[in-house]
Every structure is written in C-alpha cells, then in structure tokens.
Design brief:
388 residues; 14 strands; five-stranded mixed β-sheet; alpha+beta; three-stranded antiparallel β-sheet; single chain
Length: 388
C-alpha cells in the first residue's frame, strides 16, 4: 500500500485510505518518505498518554520547516517538565472566564465581516470570513495591531501547508518573517508594557527566572500558527459540510442551541488537524511491528475519529451524535490549549452566518483544498447565498 499524505488524490478524500490503514496496516511504514503511522483510536490515545516513550520534539515533522521551528521552542514541541511549566503560564490566558469574556468582541468582529460581504450575495468564505476572524482575534489577544492579522494568516498558512516531502523545497521565509515581526513586537513591549498577553509573558517567571527570547517567540508562534489554522479550517469545513447536508443545516437554523454539539461533529468528521508526530525514545513494538528509536511516528487523529472500533457508524455525519469521543484537539498533556477559544469562535461565526444567510451554496467545483500533510481545510471556498 502506498500512503502519501502529500498526494493531491489523498487530500481530496483521505478517508478510504484511513480505513484501509486501520484494517490492514495498523502500523504503516513508508520507507521512501521515512515515517511510520498508526491509525486506530486506542493506539493513538495510548501513544499520547505515554510521554515517557513518545517525545513531542518532532510533532510538526511532516510538512513544516523543522529546521527553523527547532529554533523556536513551541510548547507542542516540548516534553515534561518544561512543557508543563510553560503551559501553566499560558493557561491563564485561556481560562473559561477569560475565553467567555471575549465573546462580545468576537461577535462584533463576526458581524462586521458578514456585513462586508452579505449584500454582494457571494464571497470566498476563507478570504472574507473564516480566515480573518481567528486571525484578528489572535492578533488582539497578543496585543499587536488587528490589521496585521491577515498577514499572520498568510504566513501561518504558508508554514503548515508546505509539501517538502511531496517533492518541493522548504521555504523558510514565512517563519523567519513571523519571527522577526514578533521579535520587534516584544522589544516594543519591553519599552512600553501594555495590558496584553505579550506584556504578561515578558513579566512571567518560572522558579524566579524570566522566559527566554526563544520561549517568548515560541508562544507567539504557537498562537499565530495553531490558533489561526485550526479555527479557520474548523469554520470552513463546517460550512462545506452544511452545504452537503442541508437537512442538518436547517436544524441549526431553526435551533441554534444545537451548535455546540454540531461543532463536535464537525471536528470529528472533518478534523482540521489530520495528525501530528511523535518520536519514540526507544525501539517500540506496536501490533508486532518495531518502530525504531528516533523514527517519525505519525498519529492519524482524523483516522481515529472514524475508527469503527470506537465510534458507531463513523462514516455517518450526524450533528446529534452522542457521545463524540474525537481526537481533533489531541489528547492528554498536549490537548489543544486554545480548544475552548476555537469552539467559541466557530459557534459565533456559524450563528452569525446562518442567521443572515441560512440558504447558501458552496461552489465546490471552484474550491481548492489546502496542501500539506497535517491540515485539512480549504484554500478557497466560494459561497453564494440568499440573505434574510
């Protein structure tokens, strides 16, 4: 079997491949591209829980400019104990109370974006809505100008969608440009502190020591890249699914209180992050196959989310499904830090869109999928609607 997460045909419909991996190759080895992969729910959860055996140091190994990112210690690339120390600091910015307090601003942004395109009767959802909304929220959370949010979106998308193992060359430029931008922004905060996350991180201490410049940049990278891409793709994927399942869209239009449950099904059925990697610290046997020490082991979250061994009738899209044990935000110590914010942004975005344009049509023939082996979403998603 040839499993290549970079191939265009795979990106169009990865799910039959995932099913075959689960059934026939629970531990898959691609010698040419140099990685192993596991695809069953229980195997992935076990690996995510076993931080002693599986290191996160190469979590972004597929499709990202690792040579640059290795110089910026993002939390998702760190192991205990440092991971836990840094996460405890940033958790303060994502407490339920703080996230809930962002709702009025997120709703105002969403309504403003809808106002900008609704009268035209059409838009590219990614360019005009699902991209700018989370980019602006993250920019404001960090404390940088909101108008720079679109620049962050452009750079973060370029970073996560590179197809180096698909035959292209890595382009370090977007990562370097983000690093230089945030270096200057931190320098400005040192001179003029404000009431924002960057200023708080500059003042934070662990055991009496301030964070290093590399760690500060790592926080910014994590928010700008992961915070942008996950939420943009969640919203875009949701709109695409609601076009394909108009009966369920009608349920949400008639009863928006169903949205929180629906968002969990969007996440399960079309996971924005298809998988991340771990690195065994020793030779490890899984299903009789030895995964060598220091190998790249891809954990296919999106496959786990359709594993028949764990989820009943997993190929059926159902916003009323319960329970929904998906891994779209990971599991364990590295569970997505911004999951509550992503859920809130998606809920507000869909509430505002469905309230103003309950009848819409996605032009899939003119749409384009994102490249890259990690994310699943849309680069362009033209939508036409009849407005209320």
């Amino acid at each position: 079997m040839d499993f290549n997460p970079y191939s265009p045909s795979f990106r169009q419909d990865p799910y039959p491949v995932y099913r075959r991996l689960r059934d026939e190759y629970p531990v898959y080895h691609n010698e040419e591209l140099g990685f192993f992969a596991i695809s069953r729910y229980d195997d992935i959860v076990a690996a995510l829980q076993d931080v002693e055996t599986f290191s996160s140091s190469n979590a972004l190994g597929i499709g990202a400019p690792k040579e640059v990112l290795d110089q910026i210690p993002m939390m998702m690339l760190l192991d205990p104990p440092r991971h836990g120390q840094l996460r405890a600091l940033v958790n303060r910015a994502f407490t339920p109370r703080r996230v809930a307090g962002l709702e009025p601003r997120i709703r105002a942004l969403a309504r403003s974006l809808v106002d900008d395109f609704i009268e035209r009767g059409s838009c590219d959802l990614v360019e005009h809505f699902s991209g700018p909304l989370p980019a602006t929220v993250i920019a404001e959370l960090l404390g940088v100008p909101a108008e720079d949010g679109l620049m962050f979106k452009e750079k973060s998308t370029a970073i996560v969608t590179q197809d180096a193992k698909g035959g292209g060359d890595l382009d370090f430029t977007p990562a370097i440009e983000l690093m230089l931008y945030m270096t200057a922004a931190y320098d400005e905060r040192r001179k003029q502190p404000r009431d924002d996350l960057m200023s708080a991180l500059l003042e934070a201490e662990i055991d009496g020591e301030r964070l290093s410049q590399e760690e500060l940049l790592g926080f910014a990278f994590l928010l700008l890249v992961a915070g942008n891409e996950t939420t943009t793709n969640l919203i875009s994927n949701a709109v695409g699914l609601l076009d394909q399942y108009p009966d369920q869209r009608r349920q949400l239009v008639d009863d928006p209180s169903l949205l929180p449950a629906a968002i969990e099904e969007f996440l399960r059925f079309e996971s924005p992050v298809q998988g991340l990697s771990r690195t065994p610290r020793k030779d490890t046997v899984i299903h009789g196959c030895t995964v060598p020490e220091d190998a790249q082991l891809l954990l296919l979250y999106a496959s786990a989310n359709r594993d028949e061994r764990r989820i009943d009738d997993p190929e059926r899209f159902d916003i009323s499904r319960d329970p929904k044990p998906h891994l779209a935000f990971g599991f364990g110590t590295h569970f997505c830090l911004g999951a509550s914010l992503a859920r809130l942004e998606a809920k507000i975005a869909l509430e505002e869109l469905l309230a103003r344009a309950p009848e819409f049509r996605v032009d899939f023939a003119s749409s384009a999928r994102l490249g890259g082996g990690v994310v699943r979403g849309w680069a362009t998603l033209p939508v036409e609607f009849e407005t209320r």
